[in-house]
Specification:
This protein has about 280 residues and is an alpha+beta fold.
């Protein structure tokens, strides 16, 4: 595999339509000189892999700040524990929805921009993280399909995701999720850059104004298309790996794993820079 050079940034493609492996040392990354080329490559490739880079939390926060405006958690924490262990993450119940394809922050006025995950504890089995490039998936659609979906809008809600992992929830839990609210988003996101991407995932409930059967057929078919080859990449974690992804041009999900294994990843993120329009 040939190694490409962008300024001083050293990287190699993982797959033609998604993913690049970063070859620079930690010292080079922490210098700050690679911030601009990293941002550019992230938009182009969707997912960047830093193999066994072993970032400390402070280093991960610093790198996140280099690529965008840092976005802390609601409670002010800089680093979020991705774990199903309630002793480590008191809100781990919400992470059950992460096992299904999604974009982070579709319920926000502006979705999350870039995210970084670092592996701290491996699962006993499973637990890979999958990504798909929703820019490339849109670009490769036939012209007739693009014309069909160009102006469609989709109702999104957090409570829609609940039925993926708990088909018969307690009413109180459903009401709690419904209280988060609902929103309506375009199926095709026209970005300020001029590029377009698909807005899909587990929060997508139905196409507004469309017959529910046809809506389900369309959304499911587009999800299947966007997550298929050649737009798909699955990352098998090693301790110390870090993965950065463009949340505005990809979807992701965790693969099933032992919920009692202690699997732990640390996440940091940036604010998005534009609403979905």
């Amino acid at each position: 595999m040939s190694v490409a050079e962008l300024v001083r940034l050293s990287h190699e493609p993982i797959k033609p339509k998604i993913g690049s492996r970063i070859l620079n040392s930690k010292a080079e990354l922490m210098s700050g000189d690679l911030a601009a080329p990293l941002r550019q490559l992230l938009e182009e490739r969707g997912v960047l892999i830093f193999p066994e880079i072993n970032f400390t939390d402070a280093e991960q926060v610093a790198l996140t700040k280099m690529v965008g405006k840092f976005l802390p958690e609601i409670d002010g924490e800089e680093v979020y524990n991705i774990s199903l262990d309630q002793r480590v993450n008191k809100k781990s119940e919400y992470l059950k929805g992460s096992l299904y394809w999604h974009i982070d922050g579709t319920m926000n006025k502006v979705p999350i921009g870039a995210c970084i995950l670092s592996s701290k504890v491996l699962p006993t089995w499973g637990g890979a993280t999958e990504f798909c490039n929703t820019y490339a998936a849109y670009d490769e659609l036939p012209a007739a399909k693009k014309a069909e979906i160009e102006r469609l809008r989709v109702a999104h809600s957090a409570w829609t995701t609940l039925f993926y992992y708990e088909p018969e929830p307690a009413q109180a839990k459903l009401e709690e999720m419904m209280a988060i609210g609902e929103t309506e988003l375009p199926l095709v996101w026209s970005h300020g850059s001029g590029r377009k991407s698909l807005v899909l995932g587990a929060t997508a409930d139905h196409v507004v104004g469309m017959n529910w059967t046809e809506s389900a057929r369309l959304l499911n078919g587009l999800r299947e298309w966007a997550t298929s080859e050649p737009f798909h990449y699955s990352h098998e974690w090693k301790v110390g790996d870090a993965v950065m992804w463009d949340n505005t041009g990809t979807m992701h999900r965790a693969r099933p794993y032992d919920p009692d294994c202690g699997r732990l990843l640390h996440r940091t993120k940036t604010s998005g820079e534009e609403p979905i329009v």
